[in-house]
Amino acid sequence: MGLRVWCYLLLSMVFMLSGCYNKPVRHLAADASLLIVGESTKEDVLIFLGDPDEQQELGDGVEKWLYKNKDMSLFEKTPFIGRQFGAPEYQRVVVTLSRGIVTKCTYSADDEDDRDWADDYSWQKKKK
């Protein structure tokens, strides 16, 4: 077979495989920005962010809802060599509700590399 046939075959396989991808994507930063402290309700949070990954009852009608997301590029997902292409990004949104109204909403994002700061210095003892 000629080179052109191999290229068409490869291209068609790529397009067929991309059609199989159906994992929903979460946009925590954008969705959390839709919440208005003091106005948004528990139902608004469920509409914008969905069901929380973790819930915590703090008493007196106060709840904390945690949303987590781990973003990895296609290269980072590659087995064995993925860590050579970078580190996954972790995103978190913590929503505090008091009697069904949002009282606080915080968003944070960091890379796995950001968490390795404790091992940066040679004088530190290595934890096993």
Structure description:
This protein is of the alpha+beta class. The protein has a domain at 26-113: Beta-lactamase Inhibitory Protein, Chain:B, domain 1. The protein has 3 helices and 4 strands; from the N terminus they run H-H-H-E-E-E-E. The protein has helices at 3-18, 28-32, 42-49, and strands spanning 54-59, 62-71, 89-98, 101-111. It has a 4-stranded antiparallel beta sheet. Strand 3 (89-98) and strand 4 form a beta hairpin. The longest helix has 16 residues, at 3-18. The radius of gyration is 21 Å and the shape is flat. The chain starts with a helix and ends in a 17-residue tail after the last strand. The model has no long low-confidence stretch (mean pLDDT 80).
Keywords:
alpha+beta; Beta-lactamase Inhibitory Protein, Chain:B, domain 1; 4 strands; 128 residues; four-stranded antiparallel beta sheet
Please provide the count of β strands. 4
Spatial ordering of strands, largest sheet: 1-2-3-4
Proportion of helical residues: 10-25%
Q: For the CA atoms, what is the radius of gyration? A: 21 Å
CATH hierarchy, class of the domain at 26-113: Alpha Beta
Largest sheet: 4 strands, antiparallel
User: What is the strand content?
Assistant: 25-35%
What structural class results from the helix and strand content?
Answer: alpha+beta
Q: Termini, distance in Å?
A: 55 Å
Average pLDDT number: 80
Order of helices and strands: HHHEEEE
> Which fold name corresponds to the CATH topology of the domain at 26-113?
Beta-lactamase Inhibitory Protein, Chain:B, domain 1
By CATH, the architecture of the domain at 26-113 is named 2-Layer Sandwich
Q: What low-confidence regions span 5 or more consecutive residues with pLDDT below 50?
A: none
- The total count of helices amounts to 3
